[in-house]
Structures are given as structure tokens and as C-alpha cells.
Amino acid sequence: MPLLQLKNLEKHYGQQVVLERLNIEVEEGEFVAIVGASGCGKTTFLNMLLGTEAPSKGQLLLDGEPIPDEPDAHRGVVFQRYSVFPHLTVLGNVMLGDEFSSARWLGRVWGKKRQAIRQRAQAMLAQVGLEHAQNKYPHQLSGGMQQRLALAQALMKQPRILLLDEPFGALDPGIRGEMHQLITRLWQQHNLTIFMITHDLKEGFSLASRLLVFDKLRHDPHAPEAWGATITYDLPLDRAQPSEPLVA
Ligand SMILES: Nc1ncnc2c1ncn2[C@@H]1O[C@H](COP(=O)(O)OP(=O)(O)OP(=O)(O)O)[C@@H](O)[C@H]1O
Question: How far is Cα 48 from Cα 46, in angstroms, rounded to an integer?
């Protein structure tokens, strides 16, 4: 069974049709890049996958079931500008999610449990190349380091689906290249299914195993909000997850 199925999916905001006739299936392990004009509904699409926006019509199925209408640990998310807690160190920020979930009543975790969370967080920081920055505070990090931190935070939840909204858009080209290698490695190591919005078509082609183009096919000048964008191109790319050698 496909991981995700979209059947005639639509999203409206009031009278405005933002997305319409979305019909695709996505298998576990795909890396889907999403491109399209500004305002055509790419972030809205990601929000539906995350569960923060409900579909207006049609079906959005995860493992054959309607997707839960609130975010859960299956779906991690990284935005272009990520908000971390400024008064916590890098390590503290990465540990926070697990500390919250294991200390629902007391607010703090102690002893062995805390030690285990710390070790897992440190291992995750090593995976994203931040092991030497664990005691720094977010304002002391470069843009690339902040995105590494955001990835480490998202991966601590062991998500099956990682949602990336222009994660590298604000970075310098050199740093962006390093992040491309990192995301490729994480995709493979964690067997993730990734959806990544990008404004950089080249980035989409070089990273993803599939490229979706969102566009409005129908325009009515008298009713500009009557038609939404849909998937106008669905291109398989020559980049499969399991067979690809790891990028160093
Ligand atoms: N919560 C909301 N309420 C009402 N309208 C919304 C809401 N969220 C998005 N929209 C509208 O939906 C349309 C699509 O917005 P969205 O942010 O999904 O586009 P996008 O393709 O991600 O744009 P960009 O590339 O500029 O980030 C826009 O016209 C926007 O104004």
C-alpha cells in the first residue's frame, strides 16, 4: 500500500480555492520536491500533510487511513526560519521534545532517563555535524548550523515523513551544498519520506527522487479565486533511495 494517497484533494479558504484535483500516491522512501509560483499553495499542501490544515474536499490517506488532524510524531517539520528556544543551549533544544514527552506531569526528567535522552540527543547532534556546538546558544550559530539544529530536533521524534519548507532558502550557496549532502545522508540513514518545497529548480532536480510542479491551469479573470492550483507535472527523477551510494 502507498504511504500516502491523495484522492481529488482540495483546499479552500472561504471563497478562495487554493488547491484542487490533487491525485497522487507516494511510496515510503520517496524524496518529493515541490516547486511552483509564489502563493500557489505549496505551504498549504505541506500543512495538510502535517495535519495543521484540514482538507476541504477529497481524501488524504496515510497508510490507507485519513491523516490525523493534528501533528504527531510521524511527521517532522523544518521551516526556512526555525524557531528554537533562545535561552536553551543546542543540546537543551534537542533534548526538549523528549523531556516533555517523558515528564508529562512533573516537567523535569532526572537520573537514568535524562541521561538516555542526553545520549540520544548527542548522537543526533553528531549526525548533523553539531557535536562541537552542543553548549552554544542559538544566537551563536550560523544559518547553516541553525538548520542543522532544526533537523536534529525534527529527527529526535523519529518521524517517517519529514516536511521541509524551503529549508535552505536563506543559506549561502556554499553552505547550501553542505546541507544538500547532509539531507541526502539523513534521508538514507533514517529511511525517510521527504517533501521539500524549494524555489530552486536545480536543487529539486539534484536532491529529489520525484518532482511535483504546482500551477494554476484555469484562470477566470472575473473570478480570480474560483480555481486553484493543481499538480501539473509529476516527474520521476533518477535518484532512488536504497541504491544510491552514500554521499561522503
Ligand atoms: N490560513 C489562511 N487563511 C486564508 N488564506 C490563506 C491561509 N493560508 C494561506 N492562504 C492563502 O492561500 C494561498 C496559498 O498560500 P501558500 O502560503 O500555501 O502559498 P505558497 O505556494 O507556499 O507561497 P510561497 O511560495 O510564496 O511561500 C495564498 O493566496 C494565501 O493567501
Answer: 5
Q: What is the pLDDT of residues 150-186, one digit of tens each?
A: 999 989 888 899 999 998 888 888 899 999 999 999 9
pTM: 0.90
pLDDT of the residue at 247: 47
What is the set of domains in the chain, with CATH numbers? Answer: 4-74+159-236 (3.40.50.300)
How far is Cα 161 from Cα 177, in angstroms, rounded to an integer? 22
Provide the angle, in degrees to the nearest 10, between the axes of the packed helices 143-156 and 173-189. 10
Model confidence over 8-47: pLDDT tens digits?
A: 999 999 999 999 999 999 999 999 999 999 999 999 999 9
Can you read off the three cell numbers belonging to residue 125?
Answer: 547532534
- Mutation pick for ligand 1 pocket among 11, 13, 227 (CB with most ligand atoms within 8 Å): 13
Distance (Å) from CA 141 to ligand 1 centroid: 30
ipTM, 2 decimals?
0.96
